[in-house]
Structure formats: structure tokens, C-alpha cells
Design brief:
The complex is a heterodimer of chains A (about 230) and B (about 300). Chain A is an alpha/beta fold and about 230 residues long. Helices cover about 35% and strands about 25% of the residues of chain A. Chain A contains 9 helices and 10 strands. In chain A, strands 6-7-8-3-9-10 form a 6-stranded mixed sheet, sandwiched between helices. Chain A has a 4-stranded antiparallel sheet with strand order 2-1-4-5, with helices on one face. The longest helix of chain A has 18 residues. Chain B contains 11 helices and 2 strands. Chain B is an all-alpha fold and about 300 residues long. Chain B is about 75% helix and about 5% strand. Classes of the chains: A alpha/beta (about 230), B mainly alpha (about 300).
């Protein structure tokens, strides 16, 4: 579904991602693990087109999208939940969700979004900026799902969220994959969360993938070592 | 001077303030949505207003020559044409000039100023340096006197009504239409709006054009209370900027309130003192208030 080959991303002269290649299949959750500053967010921004790709390819269903602007990528089936959530604080919860309907034929929020996150329905008239961090995270995920994606990118969804809601988010991600059979790519530092959702795990270090393991072969101790400071 | 005469003067002067308020508000609205959406300070905004004013003049001359029977009706249609022409000019300006300068705010300031000078000269070459006035339909003339010594001009009331209509329309568009949702999302977070599927560049162009179109309507309204010259628009641009800054750049309610405050302060002090003193007092008051509240009158309170 998502096919990344030799992706190189740089900020001006300094290269941050040095030729990353990986593949994520339909109905599969892939976790990208790594410490701060190892290139997780840069990688995700490049996949979404927020940062320009220097070389390499990003393919969705075989079509290269690496030269497209972000909004074109959304139309082609990529959705993005950025680090720090980035919901629209001045818009109501309902309006936040509606922004994702740009390519939809019927401009109405699908019911299953509210079913998945009932708190969003209760808060739908409130300004997004007045929600708690966990609620904002659910809103950001809901907003991304409204675009009806084939590939859902989540950049550190557990950052700054209270533990009980982290569990809810893990459950939501598993439900989403089960219901919609989409590809989910998530970046993480919290190993327990990643173990709950991921079918495969990559470790990124210094802008390169240094380790890969399928769910059955994941060695938590080894991954922990990569994550320790 | 008796008390009732003084009261009548206050009322009439207050109403003159309302006409000024209308033009300022229409100008300020356009400026505010353009500045809010893309951070562009449009120095040429006054000239888009002038486009609207000349449109009214042109259509009035044409109708007077070729179809005098339509004189009572042309004005309403001409307002629509003024919007469309200013909208088109704005669209073109955004496409040809502004969109190349989005990441350089100082350059847009210079470029739109240059555009403003160019447009002024174009008006001068086409219509001449002399001020012109359209022939207004009969029903816009005269005044309404509800009491002895109290005259409320009809054109002023018309301008007010037009302003209310346009302002209401802008609010409705911003809060109920898909375009409005795109604009508000882009204002809140441009990168994220793009990453959720909104074509932000198309939204920019549409917003710029709509802002200019509203300036065109302001120009149309302006012809009923003053005569049009090549530099008419630039006379209002400073006050319009003042309205936007004072009201708080992110808030349309603020724009309305500050346009009202500035216009009334100006108009009422103008009667008792002279024009320049009125300006000095208004400016002093605004500067003082902005020192205490740098974010402007109204600012949204949310967790960001």
C-alpha cells in the first residue's frame, strides 16, 4: 500500500533522512521507534509533503506522490495526525472534523467517527482549543479519518497524554485497522504502546532504519536499548 | 443655541459618523480578511475601492446617455458590477503579483504600494485628474426629517443598509460556507489545513479577490456621499488600517466595533473642533488604548 524507497530529506545543506526504504501493507500497523532527534518527525513530514523530498519515492498503490503538495496527497489517500496534534483551536470540534471533508462527495461527518470517539460528539459545539490534550488527540485522529484515508500517519500520538487515554488511543487504532482495513504508520517512543498496536517495528537512528522486527520476533529488551538515552 | 438644537446637531453629526463608519467598515472588512488569511497588508486596497466608485460613475454615465428610463434602477445593479470588477482585479493581482511574495511580508507591502501608485495613474489617464460624481437616482437624494431641525440624509441611510447587508453576508459566508471553513482553517494553521486536504493557494486567491470585491462595494457606497478622484481610495486606507489594528486582527467583531468607535469619535469631535484636531484626538486615544491592549479590542481566548 505505502511504498517508500531511498527517501532523502534535508534542511537546506544538512541531510536529515539518509535514504530510508520500507513498505507497509494493507491492513497492517507499522511502528517507527526512535529517540528524540532521530528523524521520526522529519520522516513523517516528508511523507505528508509538509517538507520537500530531496530524492527517492513515496508510492501509494503504486503511484508516486513524492512531488505532490500535501492537499493532493490527502486526495490520494494519505492522512496525517501530526506531532502536537495541530487541531484548529479557533474552530469548533464539528468544524475541525468537517475540514477533512474536502474530497468527500457528501459533506457530512460519517457516524462511525462519533461512535469511535463519543467524547467528540459531546463536545462538538466547543472550540477545539478548549479541549484537553487527550481529547485534542482524539479529534486529530478523527479529523484524519474523515478524509477516508488508505494510509494513516500518526506522529507520536501519545506525547503529553495521560496514561488512561493512551490505552484508549491504542484501542482506537486497533479498531480502526479492523474496521477500515487501512495501513497505519505510527512513530513512537513509548514501547508498551507500540507493542499493543504494531504488526512490525522499525527503529530509526540518525535518519536511518537500523533495525526491523515482525511482531512475533520483537525483542523488547533490544528495542529498549535503542530508546534509552 | 437651545438644548433641543444641540441634541439635533449631536444626532445629525452622529449620523454623519455612521456613514463614515459604513465606508470604513466595508474597507476594514476586506483588509481584515486578507490580512487574517495570508498576512498580506494590501496597500492597494484603497484603489480597489476606487475601481468600485468609477464603475458606478461609468454605468451612471452610460445609462444616462443611452437608457435614461432606467435611471432609478441602475444603482443596485451597478453595485453588483462594482463587486465583480473589483473581485476580478483582485483575482488578477493575486495571481500576477501577490502569490509570489507570500513569504516576504515587507516585499508585499512595497509591491502593493507600487500597485496602488500604478492603479492611481491608470485612473488618472482614463478618467482625468478631476473628481467626478455619478448622477444618483432621485430616490437617493434628499433627506428625512422626523422632527423640526433634524435632517437625516437618505443616501446615508442607504449606505448604512448596504453595509449591514454586506457585513451580514461576510459573516454568513465565513461561518456557514465551505469557503469560510477553508479560510478559518487556513488562518488557524496553514500547514495543517493543507495537510488535511485544503487547497490553501486557491483559498488565498479566492479570499484576496473577495476582500477586493468588498472594497469595490465600499467604493460604490462612497459615491453617494463624496466625489471620486484617482486618489479617493488612498484617503481612506490609513483609517481602514487603523480600524483593523484597533479591532484586533483576528476578530471581525472587533473590526465592526472599532470602525464604529473611530468613525463616531472622528465625526463628533470634528463638529466641535476642526478636522485635524479631531484626527489628533482620535489617534491619541487609539495609541493609548493600543499601548494598554496591544492585541486590539477583541482577541480570542483559547488554548493554542
Amino acid at each position: 500500500m505505502l511504498n517508500v524507497s531511498d527517501l532523502v530529506v534535508s534542511y537546506g545543506q544538512s541531510q536529515a533522512i539518509h535514504g530510508v526504504s520500507f513498505e507497509a501493507r494493507k491492513n497492517e500497523t507499522v511502528a517507527v521507534m526512535g529517540r528524540n532527534g532521530m528523524g521520526k518527525t522529519t520522516l513523517f513530514k516528508a511523507l505528508m509533503g509538509v517538507l520537500p523530498t530531496k530524492s527517492g519515492q513515496v508510492q501509494i498503490d503504486g503511484a508516486d506522490i513524492s512531488k505532490e503538495e500535501s492537499y493532493r496527497r490527502v486526495a490520494k489517500g494519505v492522512a496525517y495526525v501530526p506531532q502536537g496534534r495541530m487541531i484548529f483551536p479557533t474552530l469548533t470540534v464539528q468544524e475541525n472534523l468537517e475540514t477533512g471533508l474536502e474530497n468527500a462527495k457528501v459533506k457530512e461527518i460519517p457516524e462511525d467517527i462519533y461512535a469511535m470517539f463519543p467524547v467528540l460528539f459531546d463536545m462538538r459545539k466547543r472550540k477545539g482549543g478548549n479541549l484537553s490534550g487527550g481529547q485534542q488527540q482524539q479529534l486529530a485522529i478523527g479529523r484524519a479519518l474523515v478524509t477516508n484515508p488508505k494510509v494513516l500517519l500518526l506522529d507520536e500520538p501519545t506525547e503529553g497524554i495521560q496514561p488512561s487515554i493512551i490505552k484508549d488511543i491504542a484501542k482506537a487504532l486497533n479498531d480502526i485497522r479492523k474496521l477500515r482495513e487501512i495501513t497505519i504508520v505510527v512513530s513512537e517512543q513509548v514501547l508498551s504502546f507500540a507493542l499493543e498496536v504494531a504488526d512490525r517495528m522499525f527503529v530509526i537512528e540518525g535518519g536511518r532504519f537500523v533495525h526491523e522486527a515482525a511482531r512475533a520476533d520483537i525483542d523488547p529488551a533490544r528495542i529498549k536499548q535503542y530508546l534509552s538515552v | 443655541m437651545t438644548a433641543s438644537e444641540l441634541w439635533n446637531i449631536v444626532l445629525m453629526q452622529g449620523f454623519a459618523g455612521l456613514s463614515l463608519f459604513s465606508v470604513l467598515l466595508l474597507m476594514g472588512l476586506g483588509l481584515a480578511i486578507i490580512f487574517g488569511q495570508m498576512g498580506v497588508i494590501n496597500m492597494a486596497h484603497g484603489e480597489f475601492m476606487t475601481i468600485g466608485a468609477y464603475t458606478i460613475f461609468l454605468i451612471s454615465s452610460l445609462v444616462e446617455t443611452y437608457a435614461p428610463g432606467l435611471m432609478p434602477y441602475y444603482f443596485l445593479i451597478a453595485i453588483g458590477v462594482a463587486f465583480v470588477l473589483a473581485f476580478g482585479a483582485g483575482w488578477l493581482a493575486e495571481w500576477a503579483l501577490i502569490r509570489h511574495l507570500y513569504k516576504r511580508p515587507l516585499d508585499t507591502l512595497l509591491a502593493t504600494w507600487g500597485l496602488s501608485l500604478g492603479m492611481q495613474q491608470t485612473f488618472r489617464s482614463i478618467f482625468g485628474a478631476k473628481e467626478v460624481s455619478p448622477t444618483l437616482p432621485e430616490w437617493l437624494m434628499g433627506s428625512w426629517s422626523p422632527a423640526e431641525g433634524l435632517d437625516i440624509p437618505i443616501n446615508g441611510m442607504f449606505v448604512m443598509a448596504l453595509t449591514l447587508l454586506v457585513t451580514g453576508g461576510v459573516f454568513l459566508m465565513l461561518y456557514r460556507s465551505r469557503w469560510g471553513l477553508r479560510v478559518r482553517a487556513t488562518v488557524a494553521n496553514r500547514t495543517m489545513a493543507n495537510a488535511i486536504g485544503i487547497n490553501t493557494r486557491k483559498t488565498d486567491r479566492m479570499t484576496f479577490a473577495i476582500g477586493c470585491g468588498i472594497a469595490g462595494v465600499a467604493g460604490a457606497a462612497f459615491t453617494t456621499i463624496g466625489s471620486t478622484g484617482p486618489t479617493s481610495g488612498s484617503l481612506y486606507i490609513v483609517d481602514a488600517f487603523l480600524v483593523v489594528t484597533f479591532g484586533g486582527a483576528a476578530s471581525l467583531f472587533g473590526t465592526v466595533a472599532s470602525a464604529f468607535g473611530i468613525a463616531q469619535a472622528q465625526s463628533i469631535t470634528e463638529f466641535f473642533l476642526n478636522g485635524s484636531m479631531a484626527k489628533v484626538i482620535t489617534l491619541l486615544a487609539i495609541v493609548t488604548i493600543l499601548m494598554i491592549r496591544p492585541q486590539g479590542l477583541f482577541a480570542l481566548k483559547v488554548r493554542r
